[in-house]
């Protein structure tokens, strides 16, 4: 059973930056799809960014140009660099791993990000 542990959340003023990290307890494989999701109070969980491999990424329109997802398979890590943060980015951020073979999916426990002046 793979475990994902997020870190790096916190409180920041609008315009600030945070870097989220997600550590996997086991190996991350090349075909694993890694992603960051978020859930704000009263809203559904939504995809923020995903990465198949370096250079193949997908972002929600609301974060394009501000957030960058990256992965380091050797260190079993995935990151989310968040710049120019806005109050509407406030949410619990979750790390996600989807493995095609065998078909399994893992979630982290979440880390809170609060953007407020």
Give the distance, in angstroms, between the N- and C-terminal Cα atoms. 40 Å
Overall body shape: globular
What does the largest sheet look like? Answer: 7 strands, mixed
Average pLDDT over all residues: 96
Query: How many H/I helical runs?
Result: 0
| SSE string, helices as H and strands as E | EEEEEEEEEEE
Show unreliable segments: none
Proportion of residues in extended strands: over 45%
Description:
This protein is mostly beta strands. Helix content is 0%, strand content 54%. It is built from no helices and eleven strands. Strands 2, 4, 5, 6, 9, 10 and 11 form a seven-stranded mixed beta sheet that branches. A four-stranded antiparallel beta sheet has the order 1-3-8-7, with no helix packed on it. The radius of gyration is 14 Å and the shape is globular.
Give structural attributes.
single chain; mainly beta
Short characterization:
By secondary structure, the chain is mainly β. It contains no helices and eleven strands.
Topology:
Blueprint: E1 4-7, E2 10-12, E3 18-24, E4 33-39, E5 46-53, E6 56-59, E7 67-72, E8 77-82, E9 91-99, E10 104-107, E11 111-115
Parallel strand pairs: 2-11
Antiparallel strand pairs: 1-3, 3-8, 4-5, 4-9, 5-6, 7-8, 9-10, 9-11
